[in-house]
Each structure stands twice: as C-alpha cells, then as structure tokens.
Amino acid sequence: VSQNIYRRNASVCVGETAKFTVRVSGVPKPVIQWSHNGEVITSSSVYKMIEEKEDCTLVITKVTSEYEGEYSCTATNRFGQTTCTTYLEKWPLRCSEGTEVLFNYKVSGDPIPDVNWYKGAFQIQPNRTRIISSNPDGSGCLKLKTVKQEDSGMYMCKASNKFGEASCSAELAVVKETVVVSKQEQVTVVQQKGYKVSVTEQATEDGKKVHQSMDCKLSFEDKLAVVEIPKAKLKDSGKYVCTATNEAGSSSCEALVMVQEPPTFVKKMEPKFTWKQGIAARLQCSVKGSPELHIHWFWDEHELNEGEKYKMSLKNGVAILEILNLVVADSGRYSCEVSNNAGSDSCSTLVAVKGLSSVGFILVLQVRWL
What we know:
The chain is an all-beta fold. The chain contains no helices and 34 strands.
C-alpha cells in the first residue's frame, strides 16, 4: 500500500468547509478509514467521504471548534497498512472595521428556551449598534453594526429553559483595514523587450497562476507587487490578475498585456534589377509583424505616393510597388519601410533602366585635286 497526502495542516475560518485529500494505491485495492483524534469517522451531515479512482477525500462542512484536532487516514489491504495524519485548526471569524457582523442561531425545546448573548463573561445588552432579535420558531440573531477592533473577542449564545441549558460560541477578529489594490487597465509591450506589471499584490495570467522562473520574476516590496518578464514573447499576451489578501478580505485588479511583434522582412528584394524602358516593373517583399503594419516606399530618399505612375499594395504579408511606363530617369535606389507600434524595418534595391540607343552617321567627303 502506498499513500501520498495532498494537503498537510489546514486552517479554516469558522463555518467554512475543510477538505483533506490523499492518493492511495495498492493491490488489492486498500480499504480507507478516516479518524478524528483517534475516533473513527462515519459519514454524516458534517463528514463526507469521497473516493475517485486513487484519490480519497474527507470533506468537513461548517467547521466549528469541536472539529479541530488531528485527522488520520489509514489505508489497509491484506499485505499491510499505512497511515498519514494532518491537523485542522479553526481561525476566528474575521472582518474589517466598519462592516456589519451577523451571528445566527436556531434553538428547539419545550418550552422554547430563553436566549442570552455574552461577550466573554459579560452579558450583551441591546443598543443601537448591538441588535438582538428572536423569532417564535426558535431562530434569532445578534447583529453588530459598524464593528471596531474593540469588538473582537469570543461571543457566546446561551439557551436555557427550566430543564437545562446549551450554548455555542464563535470568535470574532476585527482588523483595522482591508487591502486595497491600485488598478491598471492595458499595457502594450514589444516582443523581446522586458516589461513589468506593477500593482499595490498572487498574480494570475488568464486564470493560470504565475510562478517565479527565469522567464518571470515576482517581487513585493514597499506595498508594490511586480511581475517582470525580461524578454516578452507573443505567448505572454493576456489578462494578468493580481489578488491581494489579508485577514480582512481580498481585493483584485487586472491588466491586459498585449505583446507586439516588431516588423521584419521574411523575404527582401533582390539587391539589383535591370529593366528596359517602357515596361511596367514590379518590386515586392514579404513582411511579418503585429498589426497594424504600415508600408512606405521611397525612391532615392523621396517618399512615393500612389497615382498614375505608382501602384502600391499590401496583402497577406506581401508588399508590392508597381512602376508604370519606365523611363531612364526612374533609375535609382528604391526602399521599402515597414512599421508598427513596436518598431520598424527596411530593405532596398538598386534599379537600372536602359533606354534605346540611337545611331548616327557622318558622311565625310574627301576631295582630291588633281
């Protein structure tokens, strides 16, 4: 029998659900038994035991003080057994100053019990900020309005009638303030250049947790949390969510990071062309890069404009310049420049246009005098 535990000691707030999962393997399949402080656990409204293939899970719903302690999982088959243990502790109910806290109860008895509330050893008297209510069906609540740190402590609900009494309690911890995260909206960065997403704390990228690595650096100093990617790639684009948590609660903000690829030439023009006068010539090159790509053509450093002489197009990454009715004067250096928000690139070629040669005859007369 072999066993791997997925979760060690756990801490949960009162009223929350706790889960412990182990992976157990063995032939024949082991029998699983869960224990709490040495007592065997059976399925109930509080304890649920789930087995899915090799994963065995104990679910404890609505944790209270009585469910604190050591939990053990024992796997047994005819060849032996193995046990792993963990410890569950409850955290007090936590909230931030200024919020409203509600303690609910439901009692039963005949006659219906009287209910009193206590903080520590002192009975709570209702006032404007401490409202006590009860209903004929035995339910009721204690409402604390606009709590302060001095409201922290152990609260007890005691129900009694002439036949006896019962009580339950919960601890309240009021912290000074909740966490606040400053927000960013959208960040555009250039591929292969470093960028940082800074916020004021666990970051996720499109639902996946971001981990420290050579490609991603995380830091948190002076209330500033930073995700730094030294060499950004297109795959790093996406929504980054920063979640900050303290005892009072949590807050999140997000930034949309768009990594842009600078333009480059996949195929440049040939270094030199020689054409005859009078034809229509075409120059073309292939480019790639993040949209939107802008193409500009130049002749001897002068930018060309589309018209009767020049036709320009960019389709499926191929940039084309057509030169109509070539003449000798069209000779020179032609350049193509591509740009986007991430950068620019250019390539050039030398064009020579040859005209028709003209032939002249000179008639020379020689006269010889006799």
